[in-house]
Task: structure prediction
Amino acid sequence: MSTLSIAIARSPMRPRRVLLVLLGLAAVVLAAFFAALAAGEVAAGPRAILDALRGQPDDMAATVVAQLRLPRAMAAFGCGGLLALSGALMQVLLRNPLADPYVLGISGGAAVGALSALLLGLATPWVDGAALAGALLSMFAVFGIARGPGSWTQTRLLLTGVVVASGCGALVSLLLAISPDRALRGMLFWLMGDAGAADRPWLVLGVLILGVLASLPMARELNLLARGERHARALGVDTRRVATIVFLLASLLTAAAVTAVGAVGFVGLVVPHLLRLVLGNDQRLLLPASALGGGGLLLIADTAARTAVAPLQLPVGVLTALIGVPLFLWLLSRHPR
Amino acid sequence: MSEASPPVLLRARGLDVGVAQVRAVRGLDLDLNAGDRLAIVGRNGVGKSTLLAALAGLHPSQGELECGGAPLARWSARALAQLRGWLPQHPDDPFASSVEEAVLVGRHPWLDRFEWESEDDLRIAAEALAAMGLVGFARRNVQTLSGGERQRVSIAALLAQTPRLYLLDEPLTHLDLAGQIAVLDHFRGVADAGAAVVMVLHDINLALRWASHLLILFGDGAWQAGPVDEVASASVFGRALGHPVRALDDAGRPHFVPA
Result:
């Protein structure tokens, strides 16, 4: 953690600065959206893209954009935003910059649910439903056990989550081992994550918007929670209530992302961290910026994953890591102590 | 303490405070009025921090505990945070933050949910930093500060909170002599301006120099409290600190040293 200590030459956060940063990020996201809609085997010009966005696809390129690329781009953006927002919330909740959305076993539970459904040969909606049920089940298991008879500490929550996550990992291995070969391919695709498989992109985007709106009113309280539970309580924060809401919110956001696209790694851990290096740790900026930044990163990664070595499609999680790792290391080296 | 029905900032009657096997106080009676400076003295592990947290309403206690004339449980968290401030013993910073941001958290109870820190809040934070000798530190990262500097940032955050009852858990930790005296002098002024200040202190001579009242914890719930002159004696300190103490004469004032 001390490696991340940087000299801070920042004035305190003002609303105008928050707005400017978010507008800048939104511009990047918009550019990434158009690139995602334009790129691919069937090249789509601005004309075709506008036609598709207006809902009047009258040629092949516009149809491809409207039916394939737009839903996929929205799902990728929504999922990346959900994971990064959830990661930012988890990092504050656990007061640990190394926490990510999966650390408390949400994705493990989802994977167990989805793979069980695939093993039984159920149809896609049932697989999604099983993934969501698995995620919620592990969420409530962690919540119930960590809460215990009254005491709620970050360490206890973290340990419970890690243990539940590794238990889910073992179950996933078991399911893979006992599955017939014909089911294995679908299972592996599910585990790697695939934005092309998301069939309700509007829902993902909607959940992301609700998540940002739900977390922003708590942003200043989260700033205090990051400095210590008791200290926050002394300053008037109902930490038990805030921690419970944040835990449930972050878990639900993760469950939505994992159900829609799959357990894409790296975004939830690194995007909040990376933005924190540049923007500071004021949650009033960091939370919405994480949603935009995570969405943008996964959108760019997904576009690269399906075009880089077309017609072959790369797992998008590999791409997020390949883009994120050098960027992150460069930022770290730019801020020596 | 003082006359003409002064505002009682903190009132405890028959207060029991403990954690696990440690009983900090049993049946504590305590009144703190504006202008009072109370030092809490006792051995390691006797429950000083637990007692302080209980007085702040951050740790459960049995008995009567009133703050500003109303039972502690009756206060909303925000209103209580505007009235009483608490200095934590071990600040730790998992995330980078500027000194200014760390001090501005003290303004939290004074801001509405969607309100941003105003120019007034920034000025209050700057004054708190200046009071702790931290002019020019505003943009430093708290993670790069020395222990003493970090401690003064915590105290500045407490000052920025502008409560009327200050509860400080070992505020002199990591401070050099000049820093210790500066903090004690500053909080003498804070008390004179109408606040009540409680400190957990380890150095009994600094406690005597600063405090108007002492609360001595002997362990196992036993305690003794009162004006400094009535409580301070070699036998009391010897019993409380677990090592015999004798008094030297320092220009008419007692100075206590290990026997």
Notes: The CA atoms of residues 20 and 95 of chain B lie 31 Å apart. The two ends of chain B are 33 Å apart (CA to CA). The interface with chain A takes residues 53, 56, 58, 76-82, 85-86, 88, 91-98, 100-102, 104-106, 108-109, 111, 113-114, 116-117, 122, 139-141, 143-144, 161 of chain B (CB under 8 Å). The longest strand of chain B covers residues 8-19.
